[in-house]
């Protein structure tokens, strides 16, 4: 299973002429997750040729406007397009109160059905689960209650070696248990260890989304070993005092989190609009964590 992440918006609260507020799409086989929905999200979906009808699950990290002001427009457009489906929205409970009057004002019967799932803002929580994937929310450190999200593939079973089935005449009824980790006992009482009978499955894929947040070490334990970490880097170290005041992070702090959490790769974004040259962010982060990339709008990152 591959994860494909498309950046729709990489800027912080003030959009620029070429950078939108936060929004991302994570595609896994059979699922399309929208993560945050800043102003202009539906325009960016169009530009990146992502079908609105594929979006069934929307995750909102917190209720600062640059992370959800695009939601009512997106839902309205989906309705105008005649998309007929439930749309699950995972967000702080106040979001429904904020946008329900706008939903009520939409004329006629809505073809889509928004279903709100309130998030636990104080402790980690599994908010979505399917046969192959689960999504965990967890608190981060910001000026209002905010969560990050961890998307992770469920572990697969080991693969049994066909030659071992033949060599030890393994009954079909026992193959399921062997795939799950059991050893095999032959007719003459020999124990064949599982590792001889099977090949390990591929490592489950994982993606963590952490914005908006100050540097917050407890996050590292939750996302430990993640394949791709998106962590906000609103400021450079030269504005570290402002980052601390506003409970945001610098590029260096994002890199420190990647190192602390043993992430395989770091993606930084949520850039302050005061910065025009984003290469300085990459340079600063790579001094601590070499495998760092900038979140570039329209670019797809594959895990």
From TrEMBL:
Cofactor: Zn(2+)
Cofactor note: Binds 2 Zn(2+) ions.
EC number from the UniProt entry: 3.1.26.11
Binding site for Zn(2+) 1: 62, 64, 142, 212
SUPFAM superfamilies per record: Metallo-hydrolase/oxidoreductase
Gene Ontology terms, MF aspect: 3'-tRNA processing endoribonuclease activity; zinc ion binding
Residues noted as binding Zn(2+) 2 in the record, renumbered to the chain: 66-67, 212, 270
Enzyme class: hydrolase
Keywords annotated in UniProt: Endonuclease, Hydrolase, Metal-binding, Nuclease, tRNA processing, Zinc
Keyword flag Kinase: no
Active site location: 66 (proton acceptor)
Pfam families according to UniProt: Anti-Pycsar_Apyc1
Gene3D superfamilies registered for this protein in UniProt: Ribonuclease Z/Hydroxyacylglutathione hydrolase-like
Catalytic activity: Endonucleolytic cleavage of RNA, removing extra 3' nucleotides from tRNA precursor, generating 3' termini of tRNAs. A 3'-hydroxy group is left at the tRNA terminus and a 5'-phosphoryl group is left at the trailer molecule
HAMAP family reported for this sequence: RNase_Z_BN
Subunit structure: Homodimer.
Job description of the protein: Zinc phosphodiesterase, which displays some tRNA 3'-processing endonuclease activity. Probably involved in tRNA maturation, by removing a 3'-trailer from precursor tRNA.
The family this protein is said to belong to: Belongs to the RNase Z family.
Full protein name: Ribonuclease Z
Organism: Draconibacterium orientale
Gene transcribed to yield this protein: rnz
């Amino acid at each position: 299973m591959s994860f494909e992440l498309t950046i729709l918006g990489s800027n912080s609260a003030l959009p620029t002429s070429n950078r939108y507020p936060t929004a991302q799409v994570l595609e896994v086989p059979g699922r399309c997750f929208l993560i945050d929905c800043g102003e202009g999200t539906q325009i960016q979906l169009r530009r990146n040729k992502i079908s609105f009808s594929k979006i069934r699950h929307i995750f909102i990290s917190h209720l600062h406007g640059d992370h959800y002001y695009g939601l009512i427009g997106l839902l309205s457009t989906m309705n105008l397009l005649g998309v007929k489906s439930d749309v699950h929205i995972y967000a702080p409970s106040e979001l429904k109160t904020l946008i329900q009057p706008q939903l009520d004002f939409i004329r006629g019967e809505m073809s889509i059905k928004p279903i709100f799932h309130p998030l636990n803002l104080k402790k980690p929580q599994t908010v979505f689960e399917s046969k192959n994937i689960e999504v965990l929310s967890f608190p981060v450190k910001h000026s209002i209650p905010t969560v990050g999200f961890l998307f992770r593939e469920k572990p697969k079973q080991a693969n049994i070696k066909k030659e071992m089935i033949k060599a030890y005449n393994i009954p079909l009824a026992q193959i399921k248990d062997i795939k799950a980790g059991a050893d095999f006992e032959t007719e003459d009482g020999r124990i064949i260890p599982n590792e001889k009978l099977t090949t390990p499955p591929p490592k489950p894929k994982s993606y963590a989304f952490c914005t908006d947040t100050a540097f917050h070490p407890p996050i590292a334990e939750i996302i430990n070993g993640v394949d791709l970490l998106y962590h906000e880097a609103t400021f450079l170290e030269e504005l570290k005092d402002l980052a601390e005041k506003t409970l945001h992070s610098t590029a260096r702090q994002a890199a420190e989190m990647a190192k602390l959490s043993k992430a395989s790769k770091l993606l930084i974004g949520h850039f302050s609009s005061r910065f025009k040259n984003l290469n300085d962010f990459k340079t600063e982060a790579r001094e601590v964590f070499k495998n760092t990339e900038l979140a570039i709008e329209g670019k797809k990152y594959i895990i």
